Amino acid sequence: MDIYSDKKKISKSRRALRIKIYFAFLLLALLLLGIFYLAAYSPLFKIKDILIENNKFLTNEEVLIGLKQNVLSASFGGQAGFENLLAWPSGQIEIPNPAILNVNIEKEWLKRIIKVEVNERERFAIWCNSQTSICYWIDKQGFVFADAPVTEGSLVFTIFDSRDSNLFLGSKVEEDRFVGNLIFILENFYKTGFEVKKIIFYDSLKELHISTIEGPLFRFSVRFDSLKNISSIKNLDLKNAEYIDVTVDDKIFYKNKK
Fold first, then answer.
1. Which of 121, 202, 118, 124 lies closest to 157 in space, CA to CA?
2. In whole angstroms, how far apart are CA 50 and each of 3, 53, 94?
3. What is the pTM of this model?
4. Phi, psi for 145 (deg, rounded to 5)
5. pLDDT tens-digit profile of 130-182?
6. What pairing do the DSSP bridges indicate for beta strands 134-138 and 144-148?
7. CA 121 from centroid of its chain's CA atoms
C-alpha cells in the first residue's frame, strides 16, 4: 500500500508541475504578445515627422517610395507599418532606387522624428540612344540611374550611342575595362583647349568621336589610357586641323584643313 501511495503522489506532483509549466508558457506568450502589440500599435512609437535632407534632384516623395519598400519588406515592418519608429532601421542603408547610393537614418526617440540624409549618385554625363533619343544620367562608373533630357553642348557631357543599345536603369553603358578610359577622356578633354559640340560613341570600334565648336574632330579609343595623348595634344598647334586621331596608344595623327 505504501508503494502504491508513493506512486500516486509522484504522479500528482508531476501533473502539477506540468500544469505550472504550461501556465508559465501561457503567461510568457501573453507577455510577449502584449509587448509586440505595444511595440507595433502603441501611439508611443508612432512617427510624428520624417525629415528628408540633402536630396538635390529627387523629390521627397521619390525618396520615401524607396524607404517604404525597405521598411515594409522586413517582417516587423510589414506588421507594424511604415509609421512605426521601431520598424525603421538605423545608420547607413541602401534603398531600391538606382539614383541613390545610400541613405543615413537617425532616430530622435523623444521627439519621434526620423531624419534621412540622402546620398545621391553624381550626375556626371547623359547617355543617349541615337536610334530612339532615349537618354539617361550616368555616374563616373558608367552606371545608368535616372532618365535625362536630350541635350548637346559643353555644359553637360552628352554621349550619343551609335548602336541600338538596350540600356535600362541599373545597367552600365560599357564593360568596366572600357568605362574608366571613357570617363577619363571626358573629364580631361578640356585640356585640349577645344569646346565640345557633339560626342558619339561607336561600340564596334570602341571609339569616342568628339566634334568641337569651330575646331577639329577628335577620335579617341577607349581601349587604353589616353593620359599621355591628351597631355601631348595641349602642346601642339592644332587649330587648323580637320581631325585628330588618338586611337593608337602613345601616338597622335592629324590632318590639317586644305
1. 124
2. 72, 10, 17
3. 0.80
4. -135, -10
5. 888 899 999 999 999 999 988 766 678 999 999 877 789 999 999 999 999 99
6. antiparallel
7. 6
